[in-house]
Write a structure and sequence with these properties.
Elements lengths: L29 H10 L3 H10 L12 H10 L2 E3 L3 E2 L10 E9 L4 E10 L7 E5 L11 E2 L2 H4 L3 E7 L9
Antiparallel strand pairs: 1-7, 2-7, 3-4, 3-7, 4-5, 5-6
Amino acid sequence: MAAVPPAVSNTAQSIQPVFKRVQQEGTHDCAAACIAMICGRSLAEVTQVAIEKGRPKHGPYWITEDLVAMIFAHYSFVSTTYKPIGKGIVDLPDVAIVMVDYNPETECGRHVVFVRDQSNLKQIKQYFIDPADWIEPSLHVRNDFATLQPAWYIGVHPMKQPAKTGK
């Protein structure tokens, strides 16, 4: 298990997240809900793009990191492959989709969005936005990193736009 900071209870209720939370609707669409949050889209729109990019319309399915990358590219974002979290959230980029509650035996977990908001360097905020449809509203934005047991992540950032030449 990855090392995590000592926070074990959620104290993030007062944080105004930089992304609007999108709630997952089923047991397999947490990654799509996370993509929707980061891209500012609806879950239905991201699901449609996933289907257009090769995800089956009806289950069973698994959203691979290649499909994640294709969906993000559709919305002008770049994403990495899954990377292990070794030292804890210090390993994470400022925006990432993080696999939590990971079971190495089944190689399954669920996804949340990680944000390191550095807009105020005197008070950097780090938190997860959890798309789970079964959790209490007080846990939608959370910083109880040890409780969620983050294991893997996919880093995300906007694509660089080509320089304008002036002609």
